[in-house]
Structures are given as structure tokens and as C-alpha cells.
Amino acid sequence: MIKKLKDERIIKETNKISSPLYLLILILTVTVAVTKYIFFTQELSNYILEIAAITVSMGYLISNSLINGIPIFSSDDECINELQNKYRARSFEICFYTYVFGEFIALLVPGQALGITALYILIWIVPSAIFTVKAVKRGLLIWGGENRKKKTIVDFKKRVILGSLFYGTFMRWEYLWEQGKFQPMEILKILGAAAMWGIPFYFTMKLIISNGEKKSNKELEE
Question: I need a surface site. Which of 8, 56, 180, 196 has the fewest CB within 10 A?
Fold first, then answer.
């Protein structure tokens, strides 16, 4: 029963945090797109991620709202507000993962301008930082109990490894193909950069999540 209450609380609070971040990520998308248009390029192919993120996320939000008869903007009903938060949170996730994975793929494309690709970091890192801070304050970053802790830690390690490799690749990609030739030694530098970011991040977040677990348990006991 306690676990069920904890899961429901986490889902509701997570959606409540993510919901307004959808508007933020849309504003950042427009800001980056305008910046790219003015200072970098007007070629339509360089705006695929922005078009995909906005079209798919808004399509999801509008279609689910219409199908379920939920107002898109505002409501005084608490149950409707929860559904609105849920749909907006999913739309935020669509945008977020579109930019994270899209940016990683873009880095692997030969000839892709690093400066243009780097702009996407601003779109997803700002809302993710806000989400992390709020989630920590509300005790939402937890392992999910002792029974799920081992599996959750393994999944967390996998995500950190992927994120670290993304960071290392981003930092050293332009040197990997320096002067048109593949530089195998740069692979070691990519791994080094990944380790420098990933190891401190892993242990810091592990400590934060463990403290969040304790806070969450205290709130349920009260």
C-alpha cells in the first residue's frame, strides 16, 4: 500500500513539474530556431529536429485532449488538471528526447556544423536542470524501494554511460576526423572526457537519489 501511494505521488508530482516545462522547451525551440535563421543558416534541412519536436508533441497533446474531451489550456477541475499535466508532461518528453537523440545523431553526420548542433544543448539542458532541482526538493528522485534498487541502479548506470559517451563524443568529435583523416587516438580522449564527466556525475546523483529516498519515506510516514 505504501509503495502504491509512493508511486502515485511520484507520478503526479513528476507530471506537475514537467507540465510547465513543455511551454519552456517550446519557447527555447523558437529562440534557437530564430538564432539559427539569423546567424547561421536558412536551409530547411537544418530545422528538422525543431519541426519534428513541435509537430509530434503538439499532435499528441491536441489529439489526446480532443479524444478525451479535456481542455487544452486551463480548468478549475482538479482531475482535469491532472490529465492536462499528464499530456503536457508527455509532450515535454517527446521534445526532450527528440533533441537529445537527434543531437547525438547529428554529431555523427560528416560535415555537420558543430556550432549549429551545439545550440540544441540549450533547448534540453535548461529544462532538465530545472526538473532535477525541483524533483530533488520534492523528494521525487528515488530508487523505488529496496526490492527495485538493484535494477534501478543498473539502469541508471547504463544511462550515465550513454550520457558520458555523448558528452565525450561531443567534446572531441571535430578532432576525430582532423584534416579529413580518422584519428584513432582520439577514441581514448573521448573515453577520457566521458569518464571525467560521468564518474563525478554518477556518484553525485547516487547520493542525491539516496537522500531523496529517505525524504520520500519520511513524508509517507507522516
Answer: 180
CB 88 within 8 A of CB 61: yes
Q: Which of 91, 123, 140 is the last residue of a domain?
A: 140
Whether the full predicted model's pTM is greater than 0.85, yes or no, is no
> If we measure between CA atoms, which residue out of 34, 31, 163 comes closest to residue 97?
163
CA dist., res. 81 & res. 24, Å (int): 18
42 shares a domain with 15: yes
Segments of the chain with pLDDT less than 70:
1-7, 108-115, 139, 141-148, 173, 178-180, 212-222
Alpha-carbon distances, residue 43 vs 15, 38, 96 (angstroms): 36, 11, 23
Judgement on whether residues 108 and 148 belong to the same structural domain of the protein: no
Outline where 73-184 has alpha helix (H).
78-108, 114-137, 146-176
